[in-house]
Write a structure and sequence with these properties.
eight-stranded antiparallel β-sheet, disordered N terminus, transmembrane helix, 3 helices, Pept_S26A_signal_pept_1, four-stranded antiparallel β-sheet, globular, LexA/Signal_pep-like_sf
Length: 285
């Protein structure tokens, strides 16, 4: 007697292979709590990379940059451009490591473990590092000077400084110069001139008060906190005036010389050719 069809596939024609008609149980996704450590790890790595190579937060510890920056402000510092060889420019507000002796006697904060960790990954401003923040007034090759009762001059050009703290003079508390800034170094000053121990006060140290560009962490480009003080930190117009650059006076002469040399050589060649022609006997017919 023929066997009755049981309704189960036997692998024959028209039938299904073993287990094929039953479908596979979908893989159960990981729970959020199992994924959370991985997400936190990725976030920490990204934060550390950003802090190391791109942007870092810094807290303003003093009044030396008033009114541009207030004590307690948080600024973001661009650390990327120095990696491409960019040098600090006049007028920029920069953060730099203590060149040596500038912060002697200043108390160093003692943060707790959590603050140290958050500072390390860049989620909190650096607390332990001895860093300073000032405005770049002159760069390598510049001559900077300020006499009592007068303005700051760079390469003979007067700086109109609207960013100076109201009521302060340009340098009456510490006149200086003229000082030639060495290559690879900068001259920095605080905006609150009568409350800033800047380049003027460290001329007896190595570098004569100037700061090596190697010590510069980066340019402060924005105030990020508190919310009511969020603002960009641009370069004042006084640093855009014509002829401020030390190269400015030399450039026209250099360009003129470069243009004159080919003309002199061309004229000399013509004179020589004319002299040779005059001395050569005329051909007989």
């Amino acid at each position: 007697m023929p066997a009755q069809d049981s309704g189960r596939g036997d692998g024959g024609p028209g039938g299904e292979g073993p287990g094929e008609g039953e479908g596979r149980t979908p893989k159960k996704p990981r729970s959020f709590w199992k994924e959370l450590p991985l997400l936190i790890g990725i976030a920490l790595v990204l934060a550390l990379l950003i802090k190391t190579f791109l942007v870092q937060a810094f807290s303003i510890p003093s009044d030396s940059m008033q009114d541009t920056l207030q004590r307690g402000d948080r600024v973001l510092v661009d650390k990327l451009t120095p990696w491409f060889g960019a040098e600090p420019q006049r007028g920029e507000v920069v953060v730099f490591h203590d060149p040596g002796g500038w912060l002697d006697g200043e108390p160093t904060p003692n943060p707790n473990a959590a603050q140290k960790f958050l500072s390390f990954i860049g989620l909190m401003p650096s607390a332990e590092e001895k860093d300073l923040i000032k405005r770049v007034i002159a760069v390598g090759g510049d001559t900077v000077e300020c006499k009592k009762g007068g303005p700051v001059t760079v390469n003979g050009k007067t700086l109109k400084e609207p960013y100076i703290f109201p009521g302060d003079s340009a340098c009456d508390d510490m006149p200086f110069g003229p000082i030639k800034v060495p290559k690879g170094r900068i001259w920095v000053m605080g905006d609150h001139r009568q409350n800033s121990l800047d380049s003027r006060y460290h001329q007896e140290l190595t570098g004569g008060g100037t700061v090596s560009t190697d010590e510069v962490v980066g340019r402060a480009f924005t105030i990020a906190w508190p919310l009511n003080r969020i603002d960009w930190l641009g370069v004042p117009d006084t640093f855009d005036q014509p002829g401020l650059s030390a190269m400015g006076t030399a450039a026209p002469a250099a360009v003129g010389l470069a243009g004159a040399v080919p003309m002199v050589l061309w004229r000399r060649r013509k004179l020589v050719q004319a002299q040779v022609k005059a001395e050569t006997p005329a051909a007989k017919g």
